[in-house]
Automatic annotation (TrEMBL):
The keyword Hydrolase does not apply. Keywords: DNA-binding, Transcription, Transcription regulation. Residues 8-104 form the HTH hxlR-type domain. This is Transcriptional regulator, HxlR family. One of its GO terms (molecular function) is DNA binding. SUPFAM superfamilies: Winged helix' DNA-binding domain (SSF46785). PROSITE patterns: HTH_HXLR. InterPro entries: HTH_HxlR (IPR002577), WH-like_DNA-bd_sf (IPR036388), WH_DNA-bd_sf (IPR036390). Gene3D superfamilies: Winged helix-like DNA-binding domain superfamily/Winged helix DNA-binding domain.
Length: 104
């Protein structure tokens, strides 16, 4: 399979952020660790299967990290990686823009 060539860094960043739930997941992680069930409870219209799919994508992109604890019942948490934290100023601008022009 041929690798996609991007014409500029903006195109690549847009590709990563345009996936459904990505921005919301990253935004929810801005305050610290979050468990899978918490994502499901906070993202309307989501289900556990889709959340896990998106979390795995974000792990692959190295935007978040997964922490699993050897306890019963199983405990899994997600946190922003340093690369993910670098996106926070962009997400803050997006949030501010949305509040200013689209919030009711």
């Amino acid at each position: 399979m041929e690798e996609k060539i991007y014409t500029c860094p903006l195109e690549l960043t847009q590709k990563i952020l345009s996936k459904k739930w990505t921005v919301i997941i990253l935004w929810l992680l801005r305050h610290g660790k979050v468990r899978t069930k918490d994502f499901k409870n906070q993202i309307k219209g989501s289900n556990e299967k889709m959340i896990i799919k998106h979390l795995n994508y974000l792990i692959k992109e190295k935007l978040i990290e997964k922490r699993e604890y050897n306890v019963y019942p199983k405990k899994t948490e997600y946190i922003l990686s340093e690369k993910g934290k670098d996106l926070l100023p962009i997400l803050e601008l997006m949030q501010s823009y949305g509040k200013k022009y689209y919030a009711k």
